[in-house]
Q: What sequence folds into this?
């Protein structure tokens, strides 16, 4: 639960500056500083179609120490959420055993849309309860429902989506 909260808080803090009245990021294309959002060739997200993916065999993903607690402070400064770790050596991992994943080279989904991400999408979804969503929405405490704040799928532009059943 702590890990899911940490991941979700990170995502919510990242998107907080790009959500209000900025439907699907279309306005980003008008700013020179965000030119990669408009002209990048490896933008995310993409529409993954399993039948079009290239099959690949990899070893199972092995994450460890995800169940060891770490001390951190969370501060909501009104614009974003700041997570400060109290320890310098932080290791996060989890072991899922045999997994089905799809992956592709892509970008951050918010400005400046840097093309530096290897997206790995797991077939098995992690459920999030209504109570957890209420907690995440309270982080900003601005009355917004934080719904429909996603970027529309971007073209693959010749990229290959890899399908792996390890």
A:
């Amino acid at each position: 639960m702590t890990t899911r909260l940490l991941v979700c808080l990170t995502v919510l803090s990242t998107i907080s500056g790009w959500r209000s009245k900025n439907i699907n990021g279309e306005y980003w294309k008008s700013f020179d500083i965000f030119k990669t959002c408009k002209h990048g060739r490896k933008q995310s997200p993409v529409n993954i179609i399993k039948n079009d993916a290239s099959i690949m065999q990899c070893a199972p993903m092995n994450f460890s120490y995800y169940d060891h607690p770490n001390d951190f402070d969370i501060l909501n400064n009104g614009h974003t959420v700041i997570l400060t770790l109290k320890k310098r050596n932080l290791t996060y991992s989890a072991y899922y055993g045999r997994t089905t994943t799809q992956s592709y080279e892509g970008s951050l989904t918010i400005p400046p849309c840097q093309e530096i991400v290897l997206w790995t999408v797991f077939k098995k979804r992690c459920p999030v309860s209504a109570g957890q969503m209420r907690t995440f929405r309270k982080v900003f405490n601005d009355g917004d429902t934080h719904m429909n704040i996603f970027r529309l799928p971007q073209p693959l532009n010749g990229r290959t989506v890899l399908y792996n059943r390890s």
The helical segments are 2-15, 35-39, 130-138. Confidence is low (pLDDT under 50) at residues 1-21, 90-96. The radius of gyration is 18 Å. The chain has one domain: 2-165.
